[in-house]
Amino acid sequence: MFKKATISIVLLTGSFVGFAAADPVIIQSTIPYAADAKVAQKVRNECVELGAQFASFTKEFGEKYEVEVQLSDTLDPSAKGRVLQMEITEAVSQGNAFIGHRKFSSARGTLYENGEKVASFEALRQSGGGAFAGYKGSCSVLGRTVKAMGKDVAQWLQAPTDNAALGDM
């Protein structure tokens, strides 16, 4: 009995070590807007940090979920290792601090391993600004949506599935 339990523990520990030692996931340091993105020019001009925030939050939450995410200025999906190509598909800013914020953003991504597609996702998050929304600017509230999507993506990276719908989808 003791021998079986010891073997089980060793095997179980080995599987966690194998998971923890997985190749890091490389993402762009600034997630770009998709060519077909629906983003008003005002949002593009004023909320210039959204792409960098999305990448940064994905990395930050990756640490929490034990997925190593590395940021890179350039991205090559055909490269060796794990590469997650993401793009923002929508960033909508309606309302304001006085009448209420109605913001949402969406993104899509494809995970490649050694140049082969492994899985993909679409994500959507919306926010009214949370507590003290009346004191927040539009870009701050949109930042909340990419933070939530970064968390969603990091969780998905633990066990990626194809055609996943993340967040408020």
Architecture overview:
- The protein is an alpha/beta fold.
- The chain has one domain (23-167): 2-Layer Sandwich (Double Stranded RNA Binding Domain).
- It is 36% helix and 36% strand.
- It is built from 4 helices and 7 strands, in the order αββααββββαβ.
- It has helices at 2-20, 41-46, 50-64, 138-158; strands at 25-28, 33-39, 69-72, 82-96, 100-113, 116-127, 164-167.
- Strands 1, 2, 3, 4, 5, 6 and 7 form a 7-stranded mixed β-sheet that branches.
- α3 packs parallel to α4 (138-158).
- It is globular, with a radius of gyration of 19 Å.
Q: Which SSEs are present, and which pair or pack?
A:
Layout: H1 2-20, E1 25-28, E2 33-39, H2 41-46, H3 50-64, E3 69-72, E4 82-96, E5 100-113, E6 116-127, H4 138-158, E7 164-167
Parallel strand pairs: 1-3, 1-4, 2-4, 6-7
Antiparallel strand pairs: 4-5, 5-6
